Amino acid sequence: MLRKFLHIRFKKTNDNTNNDTNNDTNNDTNNDTNNDTNNDTNNDTNNDTNNDTNNDTNN
């Protein structure tokens, strides 16, 4: 009985650890992707705006 309890308890702990690890990894990946996308979008927008301003000024 104790052996079965310990086995179940150990498995539950392993499952929780795996879930935590997967959640952390997914969150990190999502954050990285969102940051990269936002940075790319901001850079593109800034470049476009700067180019438009420069063209308007020069023309």
TrEMBL record:
Biased composition (Basic residues): 1-11
Segments of this protein annotated with the region Disordered: 1-59
Skewed-composition ranges (Low complexity): 15-59
Protein name in the entry: Uncharacterized protein
Lineage of the species this protein comes from: unclassified sequences, metagenomes, organismal metagenomes
